[in-house]
Specification:
Strand content: 5-15%
Mean pLDDT: 89
Structural class: mainly alpha
Strand order of the largest sheet: 4-3-5-6-7-8
Number of domains: 2
Low-confidence stretches: 1-14
Distance between the termini: 50 Å
Length: 566
């Protein structure tokens, strides 16, 4: 009862301002400074994400306005930054290609509708408490998927960095082919500016990560473009940007288009849950704070609905921005509110300078964002720890690069589910024995070892269900058949078994029948209350007898020895 009350209290608090309250007065100056640093990091990135999403530049600033403000109100994390994100921007662009022309009014309407639909789906997930769905997209596959997107994004910006015309293609390879075909038409001016931006970002990062290299590059290049009038010399710039705050309205789209958006909405929903949950878990653990995934779902839902109503695109938890604000010393979402206020000032007073920003600068920034998504360290770590899982990550990368981002996320989801089922389909079961000193240890199934002559203790390392029923039946019968000493007792140790479904129950009855015909008794040890109730309900207990249940393997060993002495 006490636990239930605690959960209810957390759920209630998560409805509003949990990421801000209580306010520590001594922390306010640090949070304000962190908000300024966050703005310096996220504003150029948000502008860059519009290029990935195919949206007007001003909509990138909109993602740091109402969506972030709504998350600070309704979310529960004190650290997560919610705004434009490269992965979701790439998925959105892949889903809308062919439906409308990127950057057009129709395209913006579809992007906003997609954000609202994603928000509503997240809201349903919050009501049903489906935060656990994040667990079904494995970290290995997420690393591979983000790396694939990083390659796709980086390759897609090479043309812009070279001053080439629009680079298109359904996948990374086609984009690269287009660049190669147009390479002779590159602009030396665009290439020089791109190289300068990359150099500035790299140099400032080598000096100190606290220096916002992207912001320095953007401001420098705006001044250079304006001062030398580079547009008149043939350099492409962003051009006029609509100033002022966004108006709130429902996007105007054709109802018949909605079904075409559903696959994209579902893909965005999965990625947002998985990526944001991974971030909130990490920072909650780092700061030893409580975690409320379902509370964050409400914040993410409201943020995306707000994004759609304010004419921008889908938002997600941002890894680099969250790390930046945390590294700056922020302890609450007050820092994000400071960032929102700074964006308001820019939208009202400083959109004209942004119009001088060369497109090559934007491409260079997005190129860096793409490269940063390729987490070489994590890929090396996965390879060292589990070569099999590394090939899952590699397969996901190849799916994104060779097929496309939209297809890549579907492949990633299927691959994660397949991997999850694979673990349960053929768990790594063991035999329990004692060593020369009498200590308990486990051995592989292939050892055919016995605890005592005629006694096999077999641990099944997963819940028993239809997919692995034949697996454990075959293992048990093979162990009996290949035993070095004729088996008289066979014990299944249930420590790892929580559920037993109907198929598994029927399979246990079949195993009991086969063993009984061969003069072998089937017994169970360490059966949990839930699994025991299922075995009782399915009639397994009636078959094996109530005296076939033992509290632990030591009881099994004692009773078996006494039986042998008689």
């Amino acid at each position: 009862m006490l636990k239930d009350r605690h959960v209810q209290k957390i759920e209630h608090q998560s409805l509003i301002l949990e990421g801000i309250l209580p306010i520590n007065k001594s922390q306010i100056p640090s949070d304000i400074l962190a908000g300024v640093i966050l703005a310096a990091v996220c504003i150029p990135q948000a502008i860059g994400y519009t290029k990935i999403a195919g949206m007007p530049v001003v909509t990138g600033l909109y993602t740091i306005l109402l969506p972030l403000l709504l998350f600070t109100i309704f979310g529960s994390s004190r650290h997560l930054f919610v705004g434009a994100d490269s992965a979701t921007a790439a998925i959105l662009a892949a889903g809308l290609v062919g439906i409308a022309v990127a950057g057009s009014t129709a395209y913006v309407g579809l992007a906003s509708a997609t954000a609202i639909a994603t928000g509503l789906l997240l809201l349903v997930a919050r009501v049903l408490r489906l935060g656990f769905l994040a667990d079904f997209l494995s970290r290995t596959v997420i690393v591979g998927f983000l790396a694939g997107i990083g390659i796709d994004v980086a390759v897609g910006e090479i043309g812009g960095m070279l001053g080439l015309s629009s680079i298109s293609g359904q996948n990374t390879i086609l984009k690269l082919v287009t660049v190669i075909q147009q390479i002779s038409h590159f602009s030396l001016m665009a290439l020089s500016i791109s190289a300068g931006v990359l150099a500035m970002i790299l140099i400032f990062r080598l000096i100190s990560r606290k220096i916002p290299g992207m912001l320095v590059a953007v401001v420098s290049m705006i001044i250079l473009s304006w001062g030398l009038n580079l547009q008149e010399k043939g350099l492409a710039v962003i051009g006029p940007i609509q100033g002022g705050l966004p108006s709130l309205s429902l996007p105007s789209i054709e109802p018949g288009v909605l079904p075409q958006l559903l696959p994209t909405v579902f893909a965005l929903f999965i990625v947002i849950i998985a990526q944001s949950a991974a971030l909130t878990r990490g920072y909650a653990s780092r700061h030893r704070e409580s975690l409320n995934e379902n509370g964050d779902l409400l914040g993410l839902a409201m943020a995306n609905i707000g994004a759609g109503l304010s004419g921008t695109f889908v938002v997600n938890g941002g890894a680099s921005q969250t790390e930046a604000v945390d590294h700056a010393g922020a302890k609450s979402q007050l820092a994000q509110i400071v960032t929102v206020l700074l964006v308001v000032i820019i939208l009202v007073y400083f959109t004209v300078p942004l119009s001088y920003l060369p497109i090559a600068v934007l491409s260079a920034i997005v190129f860096v964002i793409g490269i940063e998504l390729i987490d070489i360290g994590s890929l090396k770590d996965i390879l060292a720890k589990s070569p099999g899982e590394f090939f899952l990550a590699l397969a996901t990368i190849m799916a994104v690069v060779f097929v496309g981002v939209g297809e890549g996320i579907i492949f990633a989801i299927i691959l994660s589910l397949f991997y999850h089922v694979r673990l349960g389909y053929k768990p790594k079961d063991v035999l329990i024995v004692t060593d020369a000193s009498g200590n308990i240890k486990t051995l592989p199934i292939t050892s055919a070892a016995q605890m005592l002559p005629g006694l096999i203790i077999y641990r099944f390392n997963h819940s028993m269900y239809y997919a692995n029923a034949d697996h454990f039946k075959k293992e048990i019968l093979d162990l009996v058949e290949t035993a070095p000493t004729p088996v008289t007792w066979f014990c299944i140790e249930f420590t790892a078994v929580y559920d037993v479904d109907v198929t598994a129950g029927e399979t246990l009855e079949q195993i009991q029948g086969v063993l009984e015909k061969n003069g072998i008794r089937l017994v169970f040890a360490e059966v949990g209350s839930h699994a025991r109730s299922e075995l009782d309900r399915m009639g397994v207990t009636e078959k094996v007898g109530k005296d076939a249940y033992f509290n632990n393997i030591f009881q099994v060993i004692d009773v078996y020895r006494n039986m042998k002495k008689m």
